[in-house]
Amino acid sequence: MNVTELNHPLILHKLAILRNKNTGTKEFREVVSELSMIVCYEALREAKLDKIEIETPICKTKAYQLNEENYVFIPILRAGTGMLDGLIKVIPNAKIGHIGLYRNEETLKPVKYYYKTPRDLARREVIVLDPMLATGGSGIDAITMLKENGAQKLKFLCILAAPEGIQKMQEIHPDVPIYCAAIDECLNENGYIVPGLGDAGDRIFGTK
Ligand code: PRP
Ligand code: URA
Hints:
It is a single chain. This protein is of the alpha/beta class. Helix content is 33%, strand content 30%. The protein has 6 helices and 13 strands. Strands 1, 4, 5, 6, 7, 8, 9, 10 and 11 form a 9-stranded mixed β-sheet that branches. A two-stranded antiparallel sheet has the order 2-3. Strands 12-13 form a two-stranded antiparallel sheet. Residues 76-79, 101-103, 108, 110, 130-139, 165, 191, 199-201 line the site of 1-O-pyrophosphono-5-O-phosphono-alpha-D-ribofuranose.
């Protein structure tokens, strides 16, 4: 399976903060942002670099540079924007697109309400952001839309993934690697990740 679960004591420590129902909005946002940066570092482990020559205070040397403008971040609204803060610190010149989807609470099917991305997706690395991969419906639909608009090189970054969502995503988009901080146990009868962290959007924006 094309899935990378970050396994690190500090990540487990940070996840405990996110999972705790008593964590407040400010700290929740900060930790989502921090974990997103770490997931992004892992997702870019194999990134192509240009070799350049620079001068240190001591001597000339070869160095390596990422073409930041090759990257497009696509947060899935709303909760995906919580990951964007951290990622634009890591790659400040990345382009940004937005896809608006919400899950119908009864059917759990995603409903589209917004789509705006840079035009030239075909020549860029497209990195889709959503803290939660639950049934997989939202991530799958977002990636389908991006492919229909030319995207060829895609990655999906999340904080928590459910095995059910991973499996469905891999069936439909086997070419898209998934990077997550943790793979949780399962989904409950309401489509929430167990043990999870609750509703990511509500916790990031303080809407409940
Ligand atoms: C949440 C989450 C994902 C989706 C995951 O968004 O941020 O987009 O659910 O569930 P799925 O894998 O079953 O599709 P939600 O629909 O609650 O919208 P929000 O981000 O506006 O809160
Ligand atoms: N969306 C969330 O925000 N949380 C879940 O557990 C599942 C979907």
